[in-house]
Batch of 3 targets.
Target 1
Amino acid sequence: MGSINERVKKGGLSSFTAQIRVKRDGFRHTEARTFSTRKLASRWMALRENELDRPGVLEKIRNPDPTLGEVIDLYLKTTLTPPGRTKAQCLVTVKKHPIAARQCGEITSIEIAGFITDMINGWQPVDHETEPKPTAPRKPQTVANYVSHLRSVFAVARPMWGYALDQQALRDAVTAAKYLGMIAASAKRERRPSLDELEQLLEYFAARKRDVPRMAPMVEIVLFCLFSTRRQEEATTLLREDYEAAHGRILVRGMKHPAQKIGNDVWCELPPEAIAVIESIPQNGERIFPFNHRTISANFTRACHSLQIKDLHFHDLRHEGVSRLFEMGKTIPQAASVSGHRSWSSLKRYSHLRQPGDKYAGWDWRRWLA
């Protein structure tokens, strides 16, 4: 089962390499280690052979059990559909939690439930180079996002690599967490801006533009996103070459999609109002709105705070734009051709807001365009 080979080195000194070979049920395992004396080599070989004879030791060698953190790394390295920014950040945070240091076979519903409890209580990773972050409870919807992204790792670990991550354990922990209110579906927003609020915002941005000419054209961006139903990040990536005025459409590259992160380019129809906004903007550069989407979001938030407009987000403009299409009598396919939604389930939350007519029909919004 084992052998010791002597090797004479320069200077006349010898080294002794103990080698162990094990063959069991078609599985072969070899180990070797070098010592300064034959006695030490012989002692190690005897001890190690006894260890390998113990139940389960060879099976563990044959079927390695990495840590959850190692499997997350393998998942991120292997996947051909790179995760979005939010998913990647969530998985990086999971890797810093103590559960990531556990071997896959050790992770039961109890460990997963402990992770969920820590997350809902505001657990933060320890960074010894910076000041510790204050802990604040996370919303159940936020914790649900962490678990959802972790579910992807559990789903592929066993069938793809044979690692003992138990999907049923994850499901059991999630079920219990839902009963306790620690995990919940995202709340559906129904906030829509009023005409008075839009008037205040556009007047505010027009005044700011006069004072700071280099500021992003928030009047045009707000009106465009309202009528086109585009997200702020989508609006800032639109290219002049992808705008087809004759066909009343524009190509939205890399449109947000829960599964398809790359190459999800979608042609979207442009309502006449959105076309009018584009035509009012000087054609300088490749992008129609060459600005950072975070800057636009920050400008909008500051404006709402200054005007004391409560609980209004920039994304609510998209909600308003899609709801308007239904109120004008557009069908689901017609509304989806503008918004880029692919399924009725994504659009159905807008349909119950339907009120006959277009509330913007008598609004002189064009006066805000330069």
Note: The chain has a mean pLDDT of 88.
Target 2
Amino acid sequence: MATVVRMPSVMAGATEAALQSWLIGVGDTVTEGQAIAEIETDKAVFEHEAEAAGTVAQLLVEPGVAVAVGAPIAVLADAGEKAEDAVTAAGLGAPAAAAAAPDAAAPDAAVPDAAVPDAAVPEAAAPEAAAPEAAAPEAAAPVAKPAGGRLFASPLVRRLAQERGLDLTTIRGTGPNGRIVRRDLDGLQAPPPPVLEARPATASAERPEPERVPLTRMRAAIARRLTESKATVPHFYVSGDCRMERLLALRSEINEVSPGRISVNDLIVKAVALALRDVPAANVTWGGESILRHRTVDVAVAVAVDDGLLTPVVQDADRLGIVALSEAIADLAERARSGRLRQQELEGGSFSVSNLGMYGVGAFSAILNPPQAGVLAVAAAKERPVVEDGALAVGTVMSVTLSADHRVIDGAVAAEWMAAFVRRIESPLSLLV
């Protein structure tokens, strides 16, 4: 029996996602678990794996198009089943002529430009797959916006154009309805900045308008989630100071024999995980009608990416050796920046670590990432005056601030956890045993 492949729910609460690219073609044989498409969400690009085996009978969605979660995107035929029969059996009728015929029409599902009004939608055009190769040289020519001012491009294309300094209004789209797709940007370079004539400033000179930058899917998701977090989660804060001399000395010794470089952040993540093991009452999350007490220690690590922030989760962080933990964090960070994280790697965890120490920040407070109940804001380790045995001395001190969800963590528990964390940092050999 034919199998209908549907747009997966790759992110909690998402109502739609964009198909970035197909990894298969019509007629290809697909095995269960094989990656068949790349799906773009608010946070990253994920590979979607086939849930059944079969032969690709029809691809229903063009790359760059955003469709609703659960909508059909492809049809797989069983062994020996004709493509036409498979599509009919799937309840989608005969294979659409739009998949092959250049005159067929396709609905436009592109995200409109946030800076222009939703005016009339232009007439549907041929799918990008049907565009003849002879038209390729024409792709470099500018194309006027359709009536109403709407510009059709996927969120990924908009982000790439912004990063490369490209003006999408000057690019001819080869996708459905003239939509600009990723391949239209390949090889294009941003024009040199204009040379402005220097003029003396006058009191009556016009002030330039601020640049309006459309929101990417990730930026919009961050704005929505953090606003909800601050508005609905009762944050409270506990700060602590850690003496870092022993930890820094131990790190230097480890790096003399370690196959890879161990960072201070690796040791901090390990200390966070072990402190959660020491104080299991802090290893909890809000479950709506209940409190979830976790039996594993999974810690999310904040990673800055273009136009946003991702928090991939290191599972069983308390059980990993420091080298294995460092490798896991480095792998997640690299794939976060290249957009190759899997959805399950962004889910779970009761705590996050947000480290701005590399920027020299003295102290800061972070916003919780629900449903996680804690986030540790880590500042720079700096030399400060300290008191040792009643005398003034100079010590290397790192300030940290815990943001906690008061629905599940009380002040005494937060203070106990902070004491356990500081103890682990200041007795760093405990991180290795």
Note: The first strand starts at residue 3 and ends at 6.
Target 3
Amino acid sequence: MDSLRQSLSIPAMSASVVRDGRVVFSAGTGMADVERGIAATPTTKFRVGSVSKILTAAALMRLIEDGVLTLDEPVRRRLSPYPAHWPEITLRQLAQHSAGIRHYRGAEFFSRTAYPSLREAIHVFEADSVLFAPGTRYAYSSYGYNLLGAVMESVAGEPFPAIIERLVARPLGMSATVADSANRTIPGRAVIYRVTAEGVGITPEDDLSSRWPSGGYLSSTADLARLGSAFTEAGFLSRESLRVMRTPLVLANGDTVRVGIGWRVGVDSSGREYMHHGGSSNGGSAFLLVYPRERLVVAMAANAFANWGEQQALRLTSMFLE
């Protein structure tokens, strides 16, 4: 892990591994705050980018189990006003990236605009037409997850961070998992860095209030491992919800895409199924990998964006599979 960190010039990296509900490895390497000499630990809060989508998907399934939402209901029923130029879109299509909502463009990824609600935040893309007829193609979309979060805020009647805290973080004991905020001090948060050809430097802060559901959370690898463990057996979610979340997307033409609700679904060289999701953000990167039948979870995070992810997580996982 430290060799990987050094090869990519990342200031800090952390990893936690859980097998059969027990922590079997947990460590940090490097500096969470280079300037102040604070070392990284498994409880350091990193920006986890799109791993935030797993938090959103988990909360969505809790709302569905509670009868507040249904997976195939139209977004139009819950979002007001609904853009007149959009076709019918379902929550399932948003959760599986088949709704046709576009992804980031240009400098939108580095937005510094604060939004009071997710309904306000979707103004960024709601004037745009969908990319294709919903259900006919797969196109990864963080904005689709922001729209999903806006629906959840509407039905729950509370801000999105309160939904995640009530339905996911508190039940799973994820005390280090919080929505990132540019205007408050968050204890234990890693400094965010940028790696360039000239070296490593602190990256300018952006505002993630527009993308909490898709990429705006802070978490520790210890917390992410707890989250992943919740998908290895029924309890936090029902057996049926777990099955639905790892069932691959089937498009209108019958083609299958190995994407479930939130999760991507892979098969390793030995034929074992695993679920995974990576995340990249301004000053952070993370990866969460779960072998549900083997009850094995690997969580990794760093305080700079760098080109690492699934293959590195699988290498670490392989040490604990046998």
Note: The radius of gyration is 19 Å.
